[in-house]
Amino acid sequence: MAESTDPVSVSPVADPSAVQSYLKDLHERITAALEALDSGRFRRDSWQRPEGGGGESRVLTEGSIFERAGVSFSHVRGEQMPPSASNLRPEIAGAAFEAMGISLVFHPRSPYAPTTHCNVRFLVATPKSGPPVWWFGGGFDLTPYYPFDEDVLHWHRTARAACEPFGAEVYAKYKQWCDRYFFLPHRNETRGVGGLFFDDLNEGGFARCFALTRSVGDHFLPAFMPIAERRSREPWGERERNFQLYRRGRYVEFNLLYDRGTLFGLQSRGRTESILMSMPPLARWDYDWRPPAGSPEARLYEEFLHPRDFLAELDRGQ
Amino acid sequence: MAESTDPVSVSPVADPSAVQSYLKDLHERITAALEALDSGRFRRDSWQRPEGGGGESRVLTEGSIFERAGVSFSHVRGEQMPPSASNLRPEIAGAAFEAMGISLVFHPRSPYAPTTHCNVRFLVATPKSGPPVWWFGGGFDLTPYYPFDEDVLHWHRTARAACEPFGAEVYAKYKQWCDRYFFLPHRNETRGVGGLFFDDLNEGGFARCFALTRSVGDHFLPAFMPIAERRSREPWGERERNFQLYRRGRYVEFNLLYDRGTLFGLQSRGRTESILMSMPPLARWDYDWRPPAGSPEARLYEEFLHPRDFLAELDRGQ
Questions:
Q1: What one-character DSSP code corresponds to residue A191?
Q2: Catalytic residue of the set B75, B117, B154, B156
Q3: What is the pLDDT of residues A38-78, one digit of tens each?
Q4: Chain B contact set for A275 (CB, 8 A)
Q5: Which residues contact B312 (CB under 8 A, 6 or more apart)?
Q6: Which among A163, A105, A134 is positioned nearest to A19, based on CA atoms?
Q7: C-alpha distance from residue A86 to each of A91, A95, A199, B82, B266 (Å)
């Protein structure tokens, strides 16, 4: 039987247990990579959700490189899809659902090292009438405080490499989706320099969608770790620390005002401490603060906090 | 002509300019009271909104008593009532509107002095069909870190006094509304020890509603200032500071996840810096932190962060 191309039907070869195995392995690999770089160790908390399912949250606190790094695996079931999950799919509002994923946010100590977020997820919804619906979602994005062109290039080249086997247009599409998603309308700023974002992916059948999602998950560490490693060696002072704390306030604003994952988690009565692991350990707000003209802080706003085709603009044969 | 008791019609004596005068005078009185206590001075920013109207934001930063104190007057107009303003009034969704109010949040420096919020507002909506609708809203609430029974008593006694001339049931009703409104479901905690909250007030005609709203506005300083003054004299250390910063994280969570005023402001494209003046200057998040058993920090959670009838329970003829 050929794979269905109907976007709201389940491919006959959908294999949730293969997705779960992949996600658990990715969880291990990410944990191991950070522990190889940082003197800190992850605390591991397994939890159950009364409504069904559970997860394991791993948090590294006050490490040598990471002020906080959290990476969670979760696999939950529910009787009613929360509203934040089904905006784009009115036909499954209120359906029973199963959701599994890895979600991480790393807040490095050094203001020269960027904050990063990565998520890969798989959902199956079973409406009261009609067939089940599955889809993948995910991506990764980078939020530098003091951006370096070579880091942004490396980040987006790696993102492009993750997408390349799946079609020439995939990187551009997911890069633009990321720019639109990680945007703060009340600040008229992107959260950072973007990366990849995709959702509602079930085009082309389960095997292709799973392979694409794995490729995104597998490219996260090669995209991020070299940047974290080299920037954590740069010396920094109070000025850079204050700017980092100030910009972390924007991270909080995005997560609590707009982030679908955070709102989905809180609305579906997920484990609050695991969901809010994404919060920075410390953040500041200054009233009406503006970066001094010509400063490195002003460069962040002027050159990086709006959508740009970094690969076309910065990649001059380096 | 008798005042209408139809909750969706405008009283013939509604007088927006009297409300505006009152609000501007209250703005002055609050500013003066803080400057009399604190060595700091308010920065005053007047602003215009492209869609109509404007306001004046006043912010005191790094004062001797207040780490940040912000109090804004605004008077704005818009062609389309934002969704967050009209949940309770589907008949005015999308109506043209006029909104004026005072809103303040004070973040004292001392962890022994509570954070506080007060708001009084007046709205008029003009639906495309049907008569205009006006209503008042407002209240004040207190968010202590290390609560003192005598402060909580003084706070609620003053709140009760503000309501007493308007009926025996008013304090209880607005106190309970406050407990319900300033609640964080994902934490199963109230924001603090409550106070008063009311909205959609137009019962009994304009004169009564305006008088009640004035009484709430006028009782804020007598409720808060004695507490701020005496608690700012208590010595404190790093432990208390860390707990204050941690609990300020909850303040951020409430404001960005649930607060109707914040969401209304951001959705209606208000001045972001004035709306987010309510953010604490510095806040922290600690993963899965719990107060030590028997500690003063545990007492906050156990005795204060759920709805209680403080006047009945604490007021033993003091």
A1: S
A2: B117
A3: 999 999 999 998 888 999 999 999 999 999 999 999 998 88
A4: 186
A5: none
A6: A134
A7: 8, 9, 11, 22, 23
Q: Tell me how many degrees the CA angle B146-A244-A299 measures, rounded to the nearest 5.
A: 150
- Separation of alpha carbons B189 and B170, rounded Å: 24
Is B249 an interface residue toward A (CB < 8 Å)?
A: yes
Put simply, the answer to whether B281 touches A286 (Cβ < 8 Å) is yes
**B241 pLDDT higher than 60:** yes
Pseudo-torsion of CA B51, B56, B61, B65, nearest 10°?
Answer: -130
What tokens appear for A229 in the block? Answer: 């490693």
CA distance B63 to B42: 9
Nearest CA in chain A to B281: A285
* CB pair distance less than 8 Å for A252 and B257: no
Give me the residue from A249, A269, A280 closest to B285, CB to CB: A280
pLDDT of residue A12: 55
Q: How many other C-beta atoms are found inside a 10 Å radius of the C-beta of residue B312? A: 8
Query: What pLDDT was estimated at residue B43?
Result: 98
| Pairwise CA distance, residues B111 & B109, whole Å | 6
Q: Is B284 on the interface with A (CB under 8 A)?
A: yes
Helix, strand, or coil (residue B207): helix
Cβ of residue A35 closer than 8 Å to a chain B Cβ: no
b/e sequence B132-154, b meaning 16+ C-beta within 10 Å: bbbbbbbbbbbbbbbbeeebbbb
Q: Do the chains contact at A186 and B272, CB–CB below 8 Å? A: yes
pLDDT (tens digit, 9 = 90+) per residue, B145-171?
999 999 999 999 999 999 999 999 999
Chain A, chain B: beta-carbon pairs less than 8 Å apart: 73
pTM of structure = 0.93
Cα–Cα distance for residue pair A269/A263, rounded to 1 Å: 10
